[in-house]
Amino acid sequence: MDQPDAAAPAQDRKAPATIYDIARHTGVSPSTVSRALNKPGRLNPDTERRIREAAKELGYRINPMARALPTGKTGTLGLIVSDITNPVYFDLVRGAERAASEAGFTLIFADSQESGELELTTAERLQSYVDGLLLVASRLDDRQIQGLSSVKPVMMVNREVPGIPAVVPDVRPGITDALDQLRRLGHRRIAYLSGPPLSWLNGMRWKTLFDLAVEWDMSIVEVKSTAPTREGGAEAFQRVKAAGVTAVFAYNDLVALGLLRECREHRIDVPGRLSIIGFDDIFGADLPTPALSSIKSPLSEIGEKAVRRLLSELDGTQGGTEILLQTRFVSRESVAGPHEVQ
Amino acid sequence: MDQPDAAAPAQDRKAPATIYDIARHTGVSPSTVSRALNKPGRLNPDTERRIREAAKELGYRINPMARALPTGKTGTLGLIVSDITNPVYFDLVRGAERAASEAGFTLIFADSQESGELELTTAERLQSYVDGLLLVASRLDDRQIQGLSSVKPVMMVNREVPGIPAVVPDVRPGITDALDQLRRLGHRRIAYLSGPPLSWLNGMRWKTLFDLAVEWDMSIVEVKSTAPTREGGAEAFQRVKAAGVTAVFAYNDLVALGLLRECREHRIDVPGRLSIIGFDDIFGADLPTPALSSIKSPLSEIGEKAVRRLLSELDGTQGGTEILLQTRFVSRESVAGPHEVQ
DNA sequence: TATCGAGGGGCAATCGATTGACAATTGCGA
DNA sequence: TCGCAATTGTCAATCGATTGCCCCTCGATA
């Protein structure tokens, strides 16, 4: 006998309460309500209490749009990554989220699908919603980024651009440890399976590795990959093999995993004939046999720091332009002495 | 001789252009500008063109906050997942993003960190920003969700609530295939390593599996896990072992991976002594040896469909209340006949 | 008793865009 | 040449919250 759709609340939505409703309810003016809610102490304690109670009773929730209009502040930050499905960004996203919500800010994520054009469009679209933008591993060129930054504050992550504040990992410690381990194990000829040419981080990794290898008198070559993915790593297998090295650093773990899998398919013993080291220590790096060694960035910390710095930038409390966070080498089974297994 | 900070555009940000600027620039009134930009054809084609040109020239970008005030539409959707770092959500997020941006909407993500309380808070906070909410695998109870839905449209994903539209996978096809394969291989006693009791999907998986096992005259038991994570799976190892089954379905791939790893640690042969099947076919499921078999949901499609339905809900074009999408079994190395390896 | 000052609270303008109502212009036919 | 309708554009109110400025009240002090 019940009405068929009794459970469906879908239709009529009550308009949310405004400060005007509260004002009417308590017999004060809207401005007083605004003050009661935003400037504790400015009003008679009793009035303030009455207003607060009425607000609670009416289920008042501030309308962020309406507030944003006079203040120009939206209480929102935008985070743009090149590929949201890349496991690398997990911890970063999580760290950023935590820092943002601690500060009462809302984080908006977007994804540029590895396309510079789309990244620019997205960034511009997002800029009208947010108070500031976080660009992670941006593929834009310096000028475009400076352009964005002339509209609203921009914070770079895993990339440096003159004049723009940034939070980046210091790749040196991790690379030094890893290379040192390889050297001790007897490796002399190594390769770097590189990533996207436009990636700042790719450049840093290569340069740091190169300099160190030269310094330590090891031979090093760059092997290019076609994409920073597992497919890209698999596809580069023949070229890596042809390079005749005993160890390879891959641009990131995805590429390393692809290569690792392909080695297995072709019965190339890892780590016996080839040691493989990735970057980022993403989810799943420890899953294969052999488990992948990797150079880990403190990504969640990077996310947090980036948000916090952006927020302090919004306050006007700008610090220096760059924050460095240390990487470290996570050694797993994919590394051993060359030809250890005959 | 350059100024030290010449490259730093940080400081003075020019205020963005408004329709008033355009109006002044072209000698018409602001309302005309608004019409030119929003109602093509309403104005003299020549006027419209002039206004559009001026808008471009001044780099005009609409202020979404200002627009939201009179219209009540923000052009934004909110997506809440229980844990943003869970690889399960990758494809879902990506599909949702694609559908949203196709429609010119911006997607806001949030994460409830597996906590019902936080989920409610987050949902409420988000609601004032967005036109509609997508709740993925929500841990809230039906009443809370109906409450949210009385404020703004809500769309459920991977969960059903009376009266609320939903997009969910149909777990039957995948489970049927998987169980059928196990049966043919000779398995008779299986276990379900269950997930969070509050998870609707967990309930569906268990119930479907149970009914089918009973129907096919196989014995089945539920083994509880403490968390839907790799740790949770590893931790359940002893209980699974004690259950004396030859095959186990795990609530999701994370749990399955945890269990798989623990089997290896304890030298329990998979799939020889125990076949393992997960759900979701997440990134990395194919990485371990043996590679994990899994029942896959079309997550990216689910994300897309959910957004599209929510959008049509906003239009008033509401369809039915439920959309089902088919799952399928992805068979890999973690499944074989029992005791195949003696 | 007159004056001063501080605390408490209201008024009204403002942010940027939208939109219903209305006014001005134009063109056309009679 | 006049009138009418269609076309084109403007006015002004509105959305919800903020905030500078001003006024009122009341107690304290001279």
UniProtKB/TrEMBL annotation, chains A, B:
Signal peptide as annotated in the record: none
Domain HTH lacI-type: 17-71
Source domain of life: Bacteria
UniProtKB keywords: DNA-binding, Repressor, Transcription, Transcription regulation
Keyword DNA-binding: yes
Name under which the protein is recorded: LacI family transcriptional regulator
Source organism per UniProt: Glycomyces harbinensis
GO molecular function, one term: DNA-binding transcription factor activity
Stored InterPro entries: HTH_LacI, LacI/GalR-like_sensor, Lambda_DNA-bd_dom_sf, Peripla_BP_I
SMART domains: HTH_LACI
One protein family per Pfam: LacI
Coiled coil: none
